[in-house]
Amino acid sequence: MPHAGRVMLKWSCHSVDSLSDWLPAWEALLQHAGGTPLLEPDFILPLLAHFGGGQERLLCCGNPSEPIALAIVSPRGRFAWETFQPSQAPIGAWLHDPKYSFSQLLPGMIRALPGFPLVVGVTQQDPALVPRPESGGCVETLDYIRTAWVPIQGAFEDYWSARGKNLRQNMKKQRNKLDKENIVTRLEVLRQPEQMAQAVADYGRLESGSWKAEGGTAVHPDNAQGKFYRSMLENFCREGKGAVYRYFYGDRLAATDLCIEGGGALIILKTTYDESLADGTSPALLMRYEAFPQLWEEKRLNRVEFYGRVMEWHTRWTDEIRTMYHVNGYRLSALPTLKRMLKNKARSEQASH
User: Fold this and answer.
1) Which of 13, 78, 168, 314 would disulfide-bridge 148, Cβ 3.0–4.6 Å?
2) Start-to-end C-alpha separation, the chain
């Protein structure tokens, strides 16, 4: 139950098809809430167009012209809703005025949703954008993944000299190997909207030669993934905030990154490389090694974000790691307690067998 004496903030529920009418309010709240490009209309609209299932709802807290919070949610089972977030989106579609807390916002939100939901989930939140709340009452937070980022500050030479000896020697060894084999490398950065169709097609061609092709998750110009990345990157390039990094071994494309910029960050959304060209080298890491100095020299951005689960190679390139999190809001404060009790009981029963 909401805390006694606390006025429950009022939410309204709308068809997500009306989102275009809400864009001025969405963009204003986004700037107030940190301005990440991952929640800009240029990202969210193509995401909905290609991955929306038709059951999504747009929720607004407060005055529609100056909302306290906005969210796009979809049903998850019979008694739960969660923020809209296909796997192509690193964070859930949620915005709120930082003056308000999840414990203030979620009780009213859950009651504005259709049916009789018992829980609403705000998925994969970034503590760098939205500080993690404490669990308590009707609110529960859960760890998601640890993710890495690279600060862009000072001189690149200082950053690189602070990296471990193994990484520095490994990059040098790879460069020497390519030089010995007379393989000339080249880095290019595509930023024009009209270049994105070919860039995404080439990305898909590389990825189709990898393990992802076997699972059917590779990007292809004609599938939803390919259409999303092309449309979204064209949007960002029109605003001067899209970039596709491409690294060549001779005339052959060896690695490519799909990236967007905003809020001071270069966000690497997807990476792939030609596994047949690797042969003792890492085209994707060599691409970063050549691309990073330009970021330090330009001084336009202050960090590089990976937004994926921390891998061993990330820890060689940066010491900066943070934990993404989920927030669950329950209709009744007894529900998270009951959930923990059932989970602990299942664990103890499993341990006894």
Assistant:
1) 314
2) 37
